[in-house]
Design brief:
Largest sheet: 7 strands, parallel
Shape: globular
Strand order of the largest sheet: 5-2-1-8-9-10-11
Number of strands: 17
Strand content: 15-25%
CATH superfamily of the largest domain: Glycogen Phosphorylase B
Structural class: alpha/beta
Number of domains: 2
Number of helices: 15
CATH class of the largest domain: Alpha Beta
Radius of gyration: 22 Å
Distance between the termini: 20 Å
CATH topology of the largest domain: Rossmann fold
Helix content: 25-40%
Length: 403
């Protein structure tokens, strides 16, 4: 069967995602909605790291949204143990051609989507996006038990999208054909929001944060937790202060249980520390443009390693040089557009910081390369384009299923 030129434009897509409860995360969906008859299905609220987050509609208002109450099957609220309180998720009335679910294959919401497809939209194809980048053996006994459920669900999934290269490798090792797997980031950047500011505007952003023009500003944006490696960053900035001829400031934006520890360590090291509260979507570009370098020093843990590092592509889109550890997907995100150090190696991280601090030409070159890489690979429009190609592939093959 050959796909008609406008086949996707007549396609009905039911897109299920708890991440897209936040309207700023719907950038790619806005492009998908231009080419398909699109419906986003989300929880009405979700427990975020910084508290309960209610579905918002501030950005990307043209994306049609249906929200349903969320339920968790146990006291511990995890990203995979939830489902939506709806008799059919709207499938009976909408009759989607594609059901696109963003969650791990063993999650309750994937189970719910598969059941409701069978009951209400049996002709629909199901596409599953997953961030999973560790094998069940790496994750422990509970994950090995859940793998039985994932294995059952995978038999009825038509196509798999992985947010990282490791995820594709894991699926292939489990017997999923490579032609039924793609590697595409979940969320991209909007180049009209994230872009390099003029020098005058950058200077203004620095002054707002209390950073002088002569200081070298190394920054981190994210959760203040051990696995993000911010104590390693503080140690490296402390060492840089001892060898650099410039004044150095460490800028941290976010929140988490490690904040007090980092503050105390910065004081012991004698480094100047600027701590900012979690940034709203529209505030992040200004913070990025105030930095000389953005660092993501993540450290892998027995049950976790960096799945992508979205903050990296935001910085790259702002023309800010990036430094990242080699945890998980970080090296694949940065490519040749930044500096990589071995996770937990403070000496290597210090060397990377010193290179960026002392070599203006290197800093400018990395900024240009990062910008080019972000615009080529990581915009919402590009991610949507690649997703639409998958929709076409799935539609054109009636039996495009693993089973």
């Amino acid at each position: 069967m050959t796909v008609q030129k406008n086949a996707v434009s007549t396609c009905k897509v039911a897109f299920i995602s708890h991440s897209c409860i936040e309207s700023s995360s719907r950038g790619k969906l806005a492009y998908l909605a231009l080419r398909t008859e699109f419906r986003l299905i989300t929880p009405s609220w979700y427990p975020w790291p910084f508290g309960r987050y209610e579905a918002d509609f501030e950005f990307n208002s043209k994306v049609p949204v249906r929200s349903y109450p969320i339920s968790f099957l146990n006291v511990r609220r995890t990203s995979t143990r939830w489902f939506l309180r709806s008799r059919d998720l709207g499938f009976a009335e909408f009759q989607p051609d594609i059901i696109h679910v963003e969650n791990e294959s063993q999650s309750w919401i994937v189970c719910q989507a598969l059941l409701y497809r069978k009951l209400f939209a049996p002709r629909a194809k199901l596409i599953n996006f997953s961030w999973e980048n560790m094998t069940p053996q790496e994750q422990g006994s509970k994950a090995r038990v859940l793998e039985y459920l994932a294995r059952f669900n995978r038999r009825f999934i038509n196509f798999f999208i992985c947010g990282n290269v490791s995820g594709k490798d894991i699926l292939e090792a489990k017997g999923i054909p490579s032609e039924k797997i793609a590697v595409i980031p979940q969320v991209g950047i909007d180049p009209e929001v994230f872009f390099p500011y003029t020098p005058e505007r950058q200077h203004s952003c620095r002054l707002e944060l209390g950073i002088s023009s002569g200081e070298f500003a190394a920054g981190f944006i994210g959760r203040f937790v051990e696995e993000k490696g911010i104590l390693d960053l503080a140690e490296a900035v402390g060492r840089l202060k001892g060898v650099s001829g410039r004044e150095v400031v460490l800028v941290l934006a976010g929140k988490g249980p490690l904040e007090g520890t980092v503050r105390r360590r910065a004081e012991e090291l004698g480094i100047r520390l600027v701590v900012l509260p979690p940034r709203k979507y529209q505030e992040v570009p200004g913070t990025m443009n105030a930095l000389d370098v953005l660092v993501l020093p993540s450290r892998s843990r027995p049950f976790w390693k960096e799945q992508f590092g979205h903050v990296l592509i935001e910085a790259m889109a702002c023309g800010v040089p990036v430094i990242g550890s080699d945890s998980g997907e970080i090296p694949n995100v940065i490519g040749d557009a930044g500096l990589i150090f071995h996770e937990g190696d403070v000496e290597q991280l210090t060397e990377c910081l010193q290179l960026c601090c002392d070599d203006v030409d290197l800093r400018l070159r990395l900024g240009r390369q990062g910008l080019q890489r972000a615009l080529k690979n990581f915009t919402n429009q590009e991610i949507a384009r690649r997703t639409l190609e998958i929709y076409e592939r799935v539609i054109e093959q009636p039996d495009f299923c693993v089973a």
